[in-house]
Design brief:
The chain is an alpha/beta fold and 464 residues long. The chain has 15 helices and 15 strands. The protein has one domain: 3-Layer(aba) Sandwich (Alkaline Phosphatase, subunit A).
Length: 464
């Protein structure tokens, strides 16, 4: 009799486990490399055409004030996937080997895999030059296509830092000459397969990352004579502390671009590359609609950091200003997110890990620092007193509230901007006596931990 009931108990446990597994949502996770806030729903730039991002926006809740935890690829992605801010892990730079700062088995994909998910990846999820932990993925597909450095390219890839933006106006590549095309093909296959477990499918779009080489038809969407350069103030850096002026690539690259009359060409090229990404997103969304999982599929899309196109005489990322950290964030969760809603509350991308844990019914690991934003996903108008935090190097941080940006550098120099009346951060008002209370309030959100990075010569992993 005991054996009989034991067998029944085991069978019932297996049934419950199966039902619990089926109740976990499948997740489509879409990081987009170097995609800043130049997308239609944020309304920062009225030139860019992103119809397929608009399709995704209509499915759920989109954040107009989302910010990256770091201001370049590796620090931001390491923070998002590890759940630890750069100031906690000590991983601040692209050249850091992120695996020296993140213990194997602790990142988001590992946690999901260890809790019943199959985890699939393609494209750029971590900063790929340092590789991934293979143990974190059920399967990791690398799309391989020939690289294009044609003399007909929009961008001379042989010397990106010094030469920058080419004046040549034609490209010869096709849609299928770029790896993102094949990454979508892989995701389409996974979405059509039968899965015996819930799945986490990460599709890391590489465009619009440099080089800005895409088929000519995408440049033709933006005639050069119609291009508008972003709002710009010639003396914008006059009230910036020296530390702020030195970060990133600074004015030298801007001077070269302007002298060579390449500003509009660069803007056109960036927008063309966004449109190529948007086309591939449309292919991915078509596959979602055709898949058997469309009613049980969480979709989250985000850019990994911001991007300057001449604002503050600056190009690329690597800054604590709005352009360096402002990014799209779109969530679609069947049965949770209302349709086609915008949320203007400030959040940062550290929210991804804890929010996914709740959706997947997984206990949040103790080291995960982000804020679970499920209340905003259910109701974008929920009262919210949180801020977004961005870090660039040791003890250099930006705090973004609904109306303010406060920047503090390691030498205690400061910047403060009122976004109610200064959305392009033209006037640094940190020195005004009447701003003392505002600064003190924003300072209270600064990270209390500021971990130094490992010496460059160190090869032993911190987390052995």
């Amino acid at each position: 009799m005991f054996i009989k009931y034991s067998v029944i108990g085991i069978l019932w446990l297996l049934v419950l486990t199966k039902l619990q597994s089926q109740s976990k949502p499948n997740i489509l996770f879409i990081p987009v490399d170097d995609l800043n806030h130049w997308v239609e729903f944020i309304k920062r730039n009225d030139q860019v055409k992103t119809p397929n991002l608009n399709r995704l926006v209509k499915r759920g809740v989109s954040f107009t004030k989302a910010y990256s935890p770091g201001t370049s690829c590796s620090p931001s992605r390491t923070a998002i996937m590890s759940g630890m801010r750069p100031s906690t892990s000590g991983s601040y730079k692209n050249k850091d080997n992120w695996k020296d700062y993140v213990k194997e088995g602790t990142a988001l994909n590992h946690i999901l895999k260890n809790n019943g998910y199959n985890t699939y990846a393609t494209g750029k999820i971590y900063h790929n030059q340092n590789g991934d932990y293979p143990s974190g993925w059920t399967e990791n597909y690398r799309a391989k296509v020939k690289k294009h450095s044609s003399p007909n390219s929009k961008f001379k890839s042989k010397d990106r830092k010094s030469e920058g933006y080419s004046t040549i106006v034609k490209t010869t590549v096709t849609d299928t000459d770029i790896s993102d095309w094949y990454m979508v093909d892989y995701c389409k296959e996974k979405l059509m397969q039968k899965h015996d477990k819930p799945f986490f499918l990460a599709c890391g779009f590489i465009k619009p990352h440099l080089p800005w080489i895409v088929p000519q038809k995408y440049y033709d969407m933006y005639p050069l004579e119609d291009i508008k350069i972003p709002p710009y103030l010639k003396n914008d850096l006059d009230d910036i502390p020296p530390t702020g002026k030195r970060i990133g690539y600074g004015v030298n690259e801007h001077k070269k671009i302007v002298e060579n009359n390449n500003w509009k060409i660069a803007v056109q090229s960036y927008m063309a590359t966004i449109s190529y990404m948007d086309m591939n997103l449309g292919r991915l969304l078509d596959a979602v609609e055709e898949s058997p999982y469309k009613d049980n599929l969480v979709i989250v899309l985000f850019g990994d950091h911001g991007w300057h196109l001449g604002e503050k005489s600056h190009w690329r990322k690597f800054t604590l200003w709005e352009e360096g950290s402002h990014t799209p964030l779109i969530w679609s969760i069947p049965g949770v997110t209302p349709k086609n809603k915008l949320c203007d509350k400030p959040v940062d991308l550290m929210s991804l890990f804890p929010t996914i844990c709740e959706l997947a019914k997984i206990s949040r690991p103790s080291y995960v620092e982000g804020t679970n934003i499920m209340p905003l996903l259910k109701n974008p108008n929920t009262l919210w007193d949180k801020v977004a935090i961005t870090t660039h190097d040791l003890n250099k941080h930006a705090i973004r509230s609904e109306h303010w940006r406060y920047i503090k550098y390691s030498n205690n120099s400061e910047e403060l901007y009122n976004h109610k009346n200064d959305p392009y951060e033209f006037e640094n008002i940190a020195a005004l006596p009447e701003m003392k209370f505002v600064k003190e309030k924003l300072k209270s959100y600064l990270p209390k931990t500021n971990t130094p990075s490992l010496p460059e010569s160190k090869t032993t992993k911190r987390h052995k």
